[in-house]
Amino acid sequence: MTESPIEKAADAKRRRDIGGEIGALIDGHSALTTAPWYPSRVGDRLLITYEATEQGDRWTETYEVADGDGGRALRPIGHTAPDDSLAGWFAGPPELLDGDPLETPWMEAGPDRLTVIRDGQIVHQGRHALAQPDDAPLRITTAAGPDGAIGWAVVQERQYTPAELDGLAQRIVARTQEMFRRGTEE
User: Fold this and answer.
1) pTM of the predicted structure, to 2 decimals
2) Cβ partners under 8 Å of residue 104, min gap 6
3) What are the backbone angles phi and psi of residue 150, rounded to the nearest 5°?
4) How far apart are CA 18 and CA 16, in angstroms?
5) Alpha-carbon distance 6 to 22, whole Å?
6) What 8-state DSSP symbol labels residue 96?
7) Of the candidates 119, 18, 3, 2, which has an alpha carbon nearest to the alpha carbon of residue 64?
8) Rounded distance, CA 102 to CA 114, Å?
Protein backbone atom coordinates (compact mmCIF):
# COMPACT_ATOMS: atom_id res chain seq x y z
CA MET A 1 0.00 0.00 0.00
CA THR A 2 2.12 2.91 1.26
CA GLU A 3 5.57 2.90 2.81
CA SER A 4 6.75 4.88 5.81
CA PRO A 5 10.16 6.59 5.72
CA ILE A 6 11.55 3.72 7.84
CA GLU A 7 10.14 1.12 5.40
CA LYS A 8 11.61 3.03 2.43
CA ALA A 9 15.00 3.12 4.17
CA ALA A 10 14.79 -0.63 4.89
CA ASP A 11 13.99 -1.32 1.21
CA ALA A 12 17.02 0.73 0.16
CA LYS A 13 19.18 -1.11 2.70
CA ARG A 14 18.09 -4.47 1.24
CA ARG A 15 19.17 -3.16 -2.18
CA ARG A 16 22.49 -2.07 -0.62
CA ASP A 17 21.70 1.54 -1.57
CA ILE A 18 23.19 3.60 1.26
CA GLY A 19 22.29 6.86 -0.48
CA GLY A 20 18.67 5.76 -0.83
CA GLU A 21 18.57 4.64 2.79
CA ILE A 22 19.87 7.93 4.14
CA GLY A 23 17.78 9.89 1.65
CA ALA A 24 14.55 8.18 2.76
CA LEU A 25 15.23 9.08 6.38
CA ILE A 26 16.22 12.67 5.59
CA ASP A 27 13.22 13.15 3.27
CA GLY A 28 10.81 11.75 5.89
CA HIS A 29 12.21 13.98 8.64
CA SER A 30 12.24 17.01 6.35
CA ALA A 31 8.58 16.44 5.35
CA LEU A 32 7.62 16.52 9.03
CA THR A 33 9.73 19.47 10.12
CA THR A 34 8.70 21.66 7.18
CA ALA A 35 4.95 21.02 7.62
CA PRO A 36 3.15 24.31 8.35
CA TRP A 37 1.65 22.91 11.56
CA TYR A 38 4.95 21.56 12.94
CA PRO A 39 5.97 21.33 15.79
CA SER A 40 3.18 19.60 17.66
CA ARG A 41 1.42 21.41 20.49
CA VAL A 42 -0.12 20.21 23.73
CA GLY A 43 -3.70 19.22 22.90
CA ASP A 44 -3.00 18.10 19.31
CA ARG A 45 -4.62 14.79 18.43
CA LEU A 46 -2.93 12.10 16.37
CA LEU A 47 -5.05 9.44 14.67
CA ILE A 48 -3.25 6.46 13.13
CA THR A 49 -5.11 4.27 10.62
CA TYR A 50 -3.99 0.69 10.10
CA GLU A 51 -5.21 -0.82 6.84
CA ALA A 52 -7.17 -4.06 6.70
CA THR A 53 -5.08 -7.16 6.09
CA GLU A 54 -5.85 -10.81 5.46
CA GLN A 55 -5.61 -11.30 9.24
CA GLY A 56 -8.01 -8.52 10.27
CA ASP A 57 -10.11 -5.45 9.62
CA ARG A 58 -8.95 -1.84 9.48
CA TRP A 59 -8.51 -0.17 12.88
CA THR A 60 -7.43 3.14 14.37
CA GLU A 61 -5.73 4.45 17.46
CA THR A 62 -5.85 7.98 18.83
CA TYR A 63 -3.27 9.85 20.89
CA GLU A 64 -3.14 13.30 22.41
CA VAL A 65 -0.01 15.41 22.80
CA ALA A 66 0.26 16.07 26.54
CA ASP A 67 2.74 17.60 28.96
CA GLY A 68 4.76 14.98 30.80
CA ASP A 69 7.63 14.94 33.26
CA GLY A 70 10.18 15.04 30.45
CA GLY A 71 8.28 17.43 28.17
CA ARG A 72 5.60 16.70 25.58
CA ALA A 73 4.55 13.08 25.10
CA LEU A 74 1.87 11.06 23.32
CA ARG A 75 -0.91 9.85 25.59
CA PRO A 76 -3.23 7.13 24.21
CA ILE A 77 -6.89 8.09 24.40
CA GLY A 78 -8.62 5.38 22.40
CA HIS A 79 -8.41 2.66 19.79
CA THR A 80 -10.56 0.30 17.75
CA ALA A 81 -7.99 -2.50 17.61
CA PRO A 82 -9.39 -6.01 17.94
CA ASP A 83 -6.84 -6.68 20.71
CA ASP A 84 -5.66 -4.15 23.33
CA SER A 85 -2.07 -5.38 22.95
CA LEU A 86 -1.94 -4.01 19.37
CA ALA A 87 -2.51 -0.38 20.38
CA GLY A 88 -0.45 2.11 22.36
CA TRP A 89 2.98 1.49 20.86
CA PHE A 90 3.63 5.19 20.28
CA ALA A 91 2.64 6.29 23.80
CA GLY A 92 5.18 8.14 25.88
CA PRO A 93 7.89 10.70 25.30
CA PRO A 94 9.75 11.04 21.99
CA GLU A 95 12.52 8.56 21.34
CA LEU A 96 14.99 11.34 20.53
CA LEU A 97 16.11 13.71 23.29
CA ASP A 98 14.20 16.99 22.88
CA GLY A 99 12.36 15.46 19.92
CA ASP A 100 8.78 16.02 18.90
CA PRO A 101 6.30 13.33 20.01
CA LEU A 102 5.05 12.99 16.42
CA GLU A 103 8.47 12.05 15.02
CA THR A 104 8.33 8.32 15.75
CA PRO A 105 4.83 7.67 14.38
CA TRP A 106 5.61 9.90 11.37
CA MET A 107 8.74 7.91 10.56
CA GLU A 108 7.49 4.43 11.52
CA ALA A 109 3.76 4.39 10.64
CA GLY A 110 4.28 6.96 7.89
CA PRO A 111 2.58 10.28 7.11
CA ASP A 112 0.08 8.61 4.76
CA ARG A 113 -1.48 6.76 7.71
CA LEU A 114 -1.66 9.78 10.05
CA THR A 115 -4.23 12.47 10.72
CA VAL A 116 -3.19 15.41 12.92
CA ILE A 117 -5.97 17.49 14.47
CA ARG A 118 -5.32 20.85 16.10
CA ASP A 119 -8.06 22.85 17.80
CA GLY A 120 -10.69 20.59 16.24
CA GLN A 121 -9.38 21.16 12.69
CA ILE A 122 -7.52 18.66 10.55
CA VAL A 123 -4.08 20.08 9.77
CA HIS A 124 -2.72 16.90 8.15
CA GLN A 125 -4.54 13.92 6.67
CA GLY A 126 -2.58 11.23 4.88
CA ARG A 127 -4.00 9.48 1.81
CA HIS A 128 -4.60 6.28 3.77
CA ALA A 129 -5.81 7.92 6.98
CA LEU A 130 -9.30 8.39 8.36
CA ALA A 131 -10.48 11.79 9.58
CA GLN A 132 -11.88 10.36 12.82
CA PRO A 133 -11.76 7.05 14.69
CA ASP A 134 -13.34 4.16 12.82
CA ASP A 135 -15.85 3.37 15.55
CA ALA A 136 -19.28 4.28 14.19
CA PRO A 137 -21.89 2.36 16.16
CA LEU A 138 -24.45 0.13 14.54
CA ARG A 139 -27.84 1.80 14.13
CA ILE A 140 -31.30 0.75 13.06
CA THR A 141 -32.97 2.56 10.19
CA THR A 142 -35.69 1.97 7.63
CA ALA A 143 -34.76 0.72 4.20
CA ALA A 144 -36.52 -0.09 0.95
CA GLY A 145 -35.90 -3.48 -0.63
CA PRO A 146 -35.60 -4.19 -4.37
CA ASP A 147 -39.28 -5.12 -4.45
CA GLY A 148 -40.28 -1.79 -2.89
CA ALA A 149 -41.07 -3.26 0.51
CA ILE A 150 -40.03 -1.10 3.44
CA GLY A 151 -38.50 -2.66 6.52
CA TRP A 152 -35.84 -2.31 9.19
CA ALA A 153 -32.12 -2.51 8.50
CA VAL A 154 -29.07 -2.44 10.74
CA VAL A 155 -26.29 -0.31 9.26
CA GLN A 156 -22.85 0.86 10.22
CA GLU A 157 -21.68 3.98 8.43
CA ARG A 158 -18.28 3.49 6.88
CA GLN A 159 -15.66 6.17 6.54
CA TYR A 160 -13.34 6.35 3.58
CA THR A 161 -9.73 7.50 3.42
CA PRO A 162 -8.79 9.93 0.61
CA ALA A 163 -7.21 7.04 -1.31
CA GLU A 164 -10.37 4.92 -0.92
CA LEU A 165 -12.51 7.85 -2.08
CA ASP A 166 -10.37 8.21 -5.20
CA GLY A 167 -10.91 4.52 -5.97
CA LEU A 168 -14.63 4.80 -5.24
CA ALA A 169 -14.93 7.83 -7.53
CA GLN A 170 -13.14 5.94 -10.31
CA ARG A 171 -15.53 3.00 -9.94
CA ILE A 172 -18.56 5.33 -10.00
CA VAL A 173 -17.31 7.07 -13.15
CA ALA A 174 -16.58 3.73 -14.85
CA ARG A 175 -20.02 2.38 -13.90
CA THR A 176 -21.74 5.56 -15.13
CA GLN A 177 -19.83 5.41 -18.42
CA GLU A 178 -20.81 1.75 -18.84
CA MET A 179 -24.49 2.54 -18.16
CA PHE A 180 -24.36 5.46 -20.61
CA ARG A 181 -22.68 3.30 -23.27
CA ARG A 182 -25.34 0.62 -22.87
CA GLY A 183 -28.09 3.22 -23.03
CA THR A 184 -26.82 4.71 -26.31
CA GLU A 185 -26.42 1.27 -27.93
CA GLU A 186 -30.10 0.41 -27.50
Assistant:
1) 0.74
2) 90, 94, 95
3) -105, 135
4) 6
5) 10
6) S
7) 119
8) 10
CA distance 100 to 42: 11
Q: Give the number of other CB atoms < 10 A from CB of residue 52.
A: 10
CA distance 80 to 135: 6
- Mention every residue, 6+ apart, whose C-beta is less than 8 A from residue 103: 29, 32, 94, 95, 96
* Residues contacting residue 66 through CB under 8 Å, at least 6 positions apart: 42, 72, 73, 74, 75
Condensed to tens digits (0 to 9), the pLDDT of residues 153-174 reads 766 566 777 777 777 667 777 7
3-class secondary-structure state, position 186: coil
Residue 136 has a pLDDT of 64
Q: Which residues contact 120 (CB under 8 A, 6 or more apart)?
A: none
**SS3 labels along 16-61:** CCHHHHHHHHHHHHHHHHCCCCCCCCCCCEEEEEECCECCECCEEE
Whether residue 88 contacts residue 79, with contact meaning beta carbons closer than 8 Å, is answered with: yes
Furthest C-alpha separation in the chain = 73
